[in-house]
Amino acid sequence: MGFSAIDYLVVILYLLGVMVFGLLVSGRQRSTADYFLGGRRLPWWAVLLSVVATETSTLTFISIPAVAYGGDLTFLQITFGYILGRTVVSLVFLPRYFQGELSTAYEFLGLRFGPGMRTAASTTFMVTRLLADGVRLFASAIPIAIILRLAGFRAPDLTIYLVSILIISSVTLAYTFLGGIKAVVWMDVIQMIVYIGGALLAVGILLARLPENASGVLGALQETGKLRLFYFGFDLSFREFIAQPYTFWIALIGGGVFSIASHGTDQLIVQRLLATRSLRSAQKALVSSGVLVFLQFSLFLWIGLLLYVFYSGQTPAALGLATMDEVFAKFIVEQLPPGVSGLIVAAILAAAMSTLSSSVNSLASATTLDLYKPRWGRDNTPEKDLRVSRMITIVWGLILTGSAYVFAVLQLGSTGVRPAVVELGLAIASYTYGGLLGAFVLGVFTKKLDTRDALTGFFSGLIALLFLVKGPIQALLPGEGLTIAWPLYSLVGALIVVAVGHLSCLTRKNR
Q1: 5-408: what fold?
Q2: How do residues 233-259 score in pLDDT, each as one tens digit?
Q3: N or C: which terminus of the chain has fewer CB atoms within 10 Å of its end residue's CB?
Q4: Where does residue 183 fall: left (phi above 0), alpha (psi -120 to 50 degrees), or beta otherwise?
Q5: What pTM value is reported for the model?
Q6: Domain residues of the chain, as ranges?
C-alpha cells in the first residue's frame, strides 16, 4: 500500500505534538535538583512506565520481532533473570542510595572509595551509554529510512539513515533541553502508551491478514519449532554452552546479574528511581518494571512469529531488506491501511525518543554532578549550574547523533551475518556493567578495601573481558579463544573485579 499523505500527516503532527507537550509538562527549572531529579516528587507509577520505556524502546519495537522471526521464543528466558535481578536491587542497593540522598549512582562510590573511583565509574557509564544508545538511535532510524525510500528519496542508504537520525534527534532535544527529567519522564509515559497501543494494533491487523485461523498459525509455528520457550542446552559441549546466550540457566543467572548491574549501577535507570518520593516508591517502580518487561517482550516476540508466518519465513534478502531488523518496518509501511501506518510509525518514534531523551539527560547529569561540579563548579550559583547542565545536554545530544551514524556505517557496511540490533545493544551494555557491578559490590559488602584495591579490580575486570568476548583482541590469542555469551559478561566481569580487589588488599597488607 505504501505510505500515504495521511500517514505523513499523522507522523508530522505527532512530532510537533511531542515537542509542545514536552515543554508544557516540564514546568520551570530552578536548579540541577529540578532539572535532573524533578525535585524528587515524581509518582512511582510514572517512573515505572518511564523505566520500561527507556530500557526497551525502539530495540523492542523493531529488533525483538526480528529475533523471533529468525529464531524462536527462547529470548524470553532472559526476562526471568530480569525480574530476579530487580528484586535484588530494590532490597540491597536502593536503601543505600536513599539513605545518603544521592544525586547519581556513582556518588555512592565516591563516598566509599574517593573521587577517583567516582570519576572512573561515571566515565565508564558515559562510554557505555554512548555506544549502547548509539545502537538504539540507529535502530530507531530504520522505519524512517524505509519511509523516505518509499517517498522517493533517492540517496545512498547511509545518507538516508543520517537524515533519519537527525530528524529524531532534533525533535527529542527540543523538550529535553528545556524540561529536564520531568519532561522526559512524563513524555515517556505518553510515548509508552502510544507504542504499546501501536503494537497491539499491529497484532490485530496481522491476525486479520493471515490466511490461517489461530489454530492454523499455531500449527505452522509448532512444525517449524518456533514456539520453543525453554532450552537448557544439555546437548552442547561446555565451550558451546557458555557461548550460547539463550539456554535457561545462562539466561536466568546472566540475565539476573545483568539486571542488577543495569538497574543498580546505571545512572540511566538509577536517576529515575532517585526522582521518586520515597524508597518504597522506588522499590515498587523497579520490581513492577520486571513484570511489565516480560509482558512487553512477549508481545513483540509474538509479532515476530506472526510476521514469519505472513512472509512464509523468507530471508531478508528475498524480501529486499538490508537487515532482518527491517522486517517489521517493511510490514508497517507496505501492508497497513492509510493512517494506521502513520500511527504505528509514530509509536516507533515514541519509543525512540523516550530512550534518546533519557540517555541525554542521564549523561548530562553524570557529567555535571560527577565530573564538572566537584572540580570546577563548587562555588556556582544554582542558576549557573542549570545553564551548564543545559549546555552539556546539547553536547551529548550531538555526540549520540554521531555515534548512531557510526553504527549505521558499521551495520550497513558489514558483508557478514549481521546480529539483531537488540542483541548488539545488550552486548555492549553488558560488557561494562560487569566492572560497575563489581565496584558496587565491593563498596556495599566490604570494609577493608581502599581506593587502590577498588580501582585495580575495576580496570582488571574491564580488561579481562576483552579476551573473553569474540572480537579483535581475542583474535590475538594463540589457539581458539574461549568465548562467553553476552548475558555472562556482567557476571564474569563482576567476579573478576571482586577477586582482584580482594587480592590487591591481601598483597598490600602482606608487604
Answers
A1: Sodium/glucose cotransporter (1.20.1730)
A2: 787 777 778 777 778 888 888 889 888
A3: C
A4: alpha
A5: 0.79
A6: 5-408
